[in-house]
Amino acid sequence: RLYQIPFEMPGCEGKSEPQTLHLIGDFSAPAEFFVTLGVFCFLYAMAALVLYLRFHSLYGENKKLPIADFCVTVCFTFFWLVAVAAWGKGLSDVKAATRPTSLITAMAVCQDEGVACSAGTTPAMGLANISVVR
């Protein structure tokens, strides 16, 4: 939810007051989908573990239960891959929205004649990239 984060634009050599720039974009949905799916997978795994350990005879006698378990597992696997791809896309969108060159082009003070704006340092996104890969 980048639109909730204010970004203070500096004035140009004290000639103007600093202004607030709000970033554009809401990339929280992929992360929320990923976390929600993870919670549901965990809860299903705990329920399946209880079924396997506590009601082993029921699981062994009923031929439809292992097939249903397999189908649910395949569905969770597919949704997990979709969630990882969505999370990766959301991260790349956040990186694009917070890229220093994107911020400079959004600042009105940097568009004036004779003004040279510098991006400074590039944010480190290594840990965020690792979180998607893992």
UniProtKB/TrEMBL annotation:
Coiled coil: none
TM region(s), chain numbering: 33-55, 67-87
Keyword vocabulary terms for this entry: Glycoprotein, Membrane, Transmembrane, Transmembrane helix
Residue ranges annotated for the MARVEL domain, each copy included: 1-134
One GO term describing the cellular component: synaptic vesicle membrane
InterPro entries according to UniProt: Marvel, Synaptophysin/porin
Topology with respect to the bilayer: Multi-pass membrane protein
Cellular compartment(s): Membrane
UniProt record similarity statement: Belongs to the synaptophysin/synaptobrevin family.
Name of this protein: SYPL2 protein
Organism expressing this protein natively: Piaya cayana
